[in-house]
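Lecture notes, part 5. Sequence design as translation. It can be helpful to think of inverse folding as translation between two languages: the language of shapes and the language of residues. The source text, in structure tokens, appears below.
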């Protein structure tokens, strides 16, 4: 009897087909998969209602006709040019009827189609296991620095120079700060965020440094996996230090688009009223509405972010006191490239065992 096809076998196939609905696919899917649903969003709702209110037979009778019509559409459309030797792997939610019906039809045509055992649920287990198993041994080097020290751009520069990086904010589609939401760009689902992390970790070389920006538990509305947070907190840190004028100049370039959204920018400052008082926030909101970004960014950096920066890092990162400091007065594009070269040339100590005493505090933070 042939062994079932598992997640680890997926690279042996020409095409990975997600037979679930477009709505399910949009939430998360196996990277590289194409969505060829056997039931669309409304059809799945109809079949589910019939199953609950009438019974399994009626749901399968009606659903079977829908599945047949959708399969015919796929065969006449996106699959019409596939050669005889084409080898697809099909999955649905748990490796049941939806992917089974598509696999059967594709095999009837003559293709060597296989069904993914466990479906998307098996993939989800793979993602969780990958993050939990790989995170404790990651060779992380944590880039820290006050607001406006170009940490994300440094990651990009390091990547362009051939270094290994893990850009969590890029994967989360969020800059991680109070004003970090990107215009007209929605964050992925939590499951899709974790899929992206697992996919990035799978291809890493554990013998080379992996640069990552120092992050808290949350990036926007997304949560960084606990095992990755724990490893980050026990890893060596590099702190970038730059004078306030250079930081403000960088922020003006990096957040230039906020000048076109003055009311949105002002609204984002409302949650700071308990910390700074209504009068201060009203003054900052007036700056936002008047598009006075230099004054606003300097005030936010020096009066909101900086006061708690060193204190929070000292308590958050276990190796903060032994961090390496890199100073710069140039955060231009060329300056960041030069800074990346300097950082890549540093002698980085090995990360500590993330199971060291105190690591359990991460789970409670």
């Amino acid at each position: 009897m042939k062994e079932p096809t598992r997640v680890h076998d997926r690279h042996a196939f020409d095409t990975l087909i997600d037979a679930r609905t477009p709505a399910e696919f949009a939430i998360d899917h196996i990277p590289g998969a194409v969505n060829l649903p056997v039931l669309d969003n409304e059809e799945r709702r109809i079949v589910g209602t019939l199953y609950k209110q009438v019974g399994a037979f009626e749901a399968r009778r009606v659903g079977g006709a829908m599945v047949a019509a959708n399969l015919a559409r796929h065969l006449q459309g996106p699959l019409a040019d596939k050669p005889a030797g084409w080898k697809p792997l099909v999955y649905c939610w748990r490796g049941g009827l939806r992917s089974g019906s598509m696999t059967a039809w594709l095999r009837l045509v003559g293709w060597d189609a296989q069904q993914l055992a466990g479906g998307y649920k098996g993939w989800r287990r793979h993602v969780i296991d990958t993050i939990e198993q790989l995170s404790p041994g990651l060779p992380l080097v944590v880039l820290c620095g006050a607001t406006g020290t170009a940490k994300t751009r440094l990651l990009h520069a390091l990547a362009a120079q051939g270094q290994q990086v893990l850009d969590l904010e890029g994967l989360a589609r969020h800059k991680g700060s109070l004003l970090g939401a990107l215009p007209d760009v929605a964050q992925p689902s939590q499951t899709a965020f974790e899929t992206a992390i697992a996919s990035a970790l799978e291809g890493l070389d554990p013998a080379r440094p992996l640069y990552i920006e120092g992050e808290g538990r949350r990036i926007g509305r997304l949560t960084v996996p606990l095992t990755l947070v724990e490893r980050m907190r026990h890893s060596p840190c590099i702190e970038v230090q730059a004078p306030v004028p250079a930081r403000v100049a960088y922020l003006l370039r990096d957040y230039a688009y906020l000048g076109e959204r003055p009311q949105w920018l002002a609204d984002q400052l409302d949650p700071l009223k308990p910390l700074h008082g209504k009068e201060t926030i009203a003054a900052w909101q007036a700056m936002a509405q008047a598009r006075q970004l230099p004054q606003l960014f300097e005030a936010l950096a020096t009066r909101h972010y900086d006061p708690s920066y060193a204190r929070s890092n000292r308590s958050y990162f276990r190796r903060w006191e032994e961090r390496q400091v890199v100073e710069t007065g140039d955060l231009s594009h060329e300056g960041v490239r030069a800074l990346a070269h300097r950082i890549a040339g540093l002698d980085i100590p090995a990360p500590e065992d993330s199971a060291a005493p105190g690591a359990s505090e991460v789970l409670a933070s």
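The translated text above is only one of many valid answers, since several sequences can fold into similar shapes. Residues 234 and 356 are 8 Å apart (CA to CA).
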